[in-house]
């Protein structure tokens, strides 16, 4: 799974915080108990010295195995004596053990070089929190998408029943999210403003993140702005370093409101590179836009438009501006 550098950094920082908290608490408890029960100091030294004794046994030849077995018995006896003394003095027998959040990896995130399940869960939670910071994804769910806002009569201009069409799109997006994988097809969500394009793209994003996939979401304006800052301040601003690589390699890229950004020769070239590279890498993109396919071709080059139209599944959103309807209901 591919997450942004920011997500990895935040998750690593959280693991470090958990370790520090557990080990600080352990140190405070040791100081407390050692002051009350000095005998435990020598017992803990015996337990700690066991590791060094095992290393010394390597040079003993045939006698090494017997020595290690005797050392293990001695060590277990010391640990039991430690527990007994703690209980006799009113402490839990594990009072001096570090209380790591994850006992398996001791809050390092890895077990024998393999990523621990706790780290995977932390990455998912961190990515979802980041998505919520950037967008109203917590409110943009499939369950909260209300098709009753769409007219249930055929539009004479298009011959389409908006409610029926949007029910089909909702079902499609729900199935898409349920079956999402890095080889899922790319989607083009287009139609007038306020019809739920962002809502459904965020609902898909949330489900993908919960499944452990790395998702990058952003408006076209913000994403292009980051790329410009990375390109024109290279080597001087680490905040934007790696932005292009992340957009090219993440499991799912969502470009919201394409066409509303300020276009330059640089941004058009970057957009082509992102779309083309991800097509070649077979990595999915979800694009939402208020522009029609013809409108996209007028704003961008034919090379960009042809790749989108030829490689993406197009979903046409129709109906009336839901935001205006909701505002009217609140008045």
Structure description:
With 331 residues, the chain is an alpha/beta fold. The protein has 2 domains: 21-99, no CATH class; 135-330, Rossmann fold (3-Layer(aba) Sandwich), CATH 3.40.50. 56% of the residues lie in helices and 10% in strands. The protein contains 12 helices and 7 strands. The protein has helices at 5-36, 39-57, 64-88, 117-134, 162-178, 197-210, 220-232, 243-249, 265-280, 293-299, 302-311, 322-330; strands at 110-111, 114-115, 186-191, 215-219, 252-258, 285-289, 312-317. The strands form 2 sheets. The chain has a 5-stranded parallel beta sheet with strand order 4-5-6-3-7, with helices on both faces. It has a two-stranded antiparallel sheet with strand order 1-2.
CATH architecture call of the largest domain? 3-Layer(aba) Sandwich
Instruction: Specify the CATH homologous superfamily of the largest domain.
Output: P-loop containing nucleotide triphosphate hydrolases
Roughly what fraction of the amino acids lie in strands? 5-15%
Strand order of the largest sheet: 4-5-6-3-7
Helix content: 55-70%
Report the count of strand segments.
Answer: 7
Round the mean pLDDT to the nearest integer and report it: 87
Largest sheet: 5 strands, parallel
């Amino acid at each position: 799974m591919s997450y942004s550098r920011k997500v990895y950094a935040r998750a690593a920082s959280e693991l470090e915080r958990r370790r520090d908290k557990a080990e600080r608490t352990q140190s405070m408890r040791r100081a407390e108990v050692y002051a009350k029960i000095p005998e435990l100091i020598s017992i803990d030294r015996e337990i700690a010295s066991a590791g060094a004794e095992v290393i010394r046994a390597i040079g003993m030849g045939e006698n090494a195995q017997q020595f290690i077995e005797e050392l293990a018995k001695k060590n277990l006896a010391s640990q039991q004596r430690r527990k007994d003394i703690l209980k006799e003095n009113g402490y839990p027998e594990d009072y001096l053990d570090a209380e790591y959040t994850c006992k398996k990896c001791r809050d390092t995130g890895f077990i024998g070089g393999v990523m621990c399940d706790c780290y995977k869960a932390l990455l998912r939670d961190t990515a979802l929190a980041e998505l919520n910071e950037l967008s109203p994804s917590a409110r943009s769910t499939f369950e909260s998408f209300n098709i009753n806002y769409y007219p249930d009569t055929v539009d004479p201009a298009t011959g389409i029943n908006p409610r029926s069409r949007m029910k089909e799109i909702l079902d499609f997006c729900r199935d898409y999210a349920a079956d999402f994988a890095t080889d899922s097809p790319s989607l083009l969500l287009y139609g007038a403003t306020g019809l739920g394009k962002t809502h459904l793209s965020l609902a898909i994003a949330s489900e993908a993140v919960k499944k452990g996939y790395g998702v990058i979401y952003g408006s076209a304006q913000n994403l292009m702005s980051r790329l410009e800052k990375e390109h024109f301040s290279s080597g001087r601003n680490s905040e934007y370093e790696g932005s292009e690589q992340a957009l090219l390699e993440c499991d799912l890229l969502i470009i919201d409101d394409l066409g509303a950004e300020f276009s330059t020769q640089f941004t058009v070239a970057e957009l082509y590179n992102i779309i083309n590279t991800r097509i070649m890498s077979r990595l999915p993109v979800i694009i939402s836009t208020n522009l029609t396919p013809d409108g996209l071709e007028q704003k961008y080059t034919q090379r960009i438009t042809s790749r989108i139209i030829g490689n993406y599944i197009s979903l046409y959103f129709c109906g009336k501006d839901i935001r205006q309807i909701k505002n009217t209901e609140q008045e």
